[in-house]
């Protein structure tokens, strides 16, 4: 039998997490949309998919660098904490 209260609680938490992550992602999407337009004008003959991939990579790289600077941990340190001894 499905527990509807637990399901509703889980759905609410997923909704709130999505809302917070969307608010955090919005500045990156906004700024990097301008970078995408700049690249599109500069490299007009390049396929749009390649420019989207480059822009996405730059946005994720920037987010990871800022996150590492803010937290003071590198991705390797975080992954090492979860690896079995």
In brief:
With 85 residues, this protein is mostly helical. The chain has helices spanning 4-42, 48-71, 75-82.
Distance between the termini: 39 Å
Cα gyration radius (Å): 19 Å
Order of helices and strands: HHH
Q: Describe the biggest sheet?
A: none
| Total DSSP helices | 3
- Spans of at least 5 consecutive residues with low confidence: none
Number of strands: 0
Class by SSE composition: mainly alpha
Gross morphology is extended
How much helix is in the residues?
over 70%
- Mean pLDDT, as a whole number? 88
Beta-strand proportion: under 5%
Which keywords apply here?
85 residues; mainly alpha; extended; 84% helix
Model description:
The chain is mainly alpha-helical and 85 residues long. 84% of the residues lie in helices and 0% in strands. It is built from three helices and no strands. Helix 1 crosses helix 2. The protein is extended and about 55 Å long. The protein starts with a helix and ends with a helix.
SSE topology sketch:
Layout: H1 4-42, H2 48-71, H3 75-82
Helix pairs in contact: 1-2
């Amino acid at each position: 039998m499905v527990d509807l209260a637990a399901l509703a609680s889980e759905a609410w938490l997923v909704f709130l997490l999505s809302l917070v992550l969307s608010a955090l992602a919005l500045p990156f999407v906004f700024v990097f949309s301008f970078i995408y337009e700049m690249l599109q004008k500069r490299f007009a003959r390049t396929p749009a998919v390649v420019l989207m991939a480059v822009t996405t990579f730059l946005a994720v790289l920037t987010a990871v660098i800022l996150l590492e600077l803010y937290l003071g941990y590198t991705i390797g340190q975080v992954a090492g904490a979860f690896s079995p001894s």
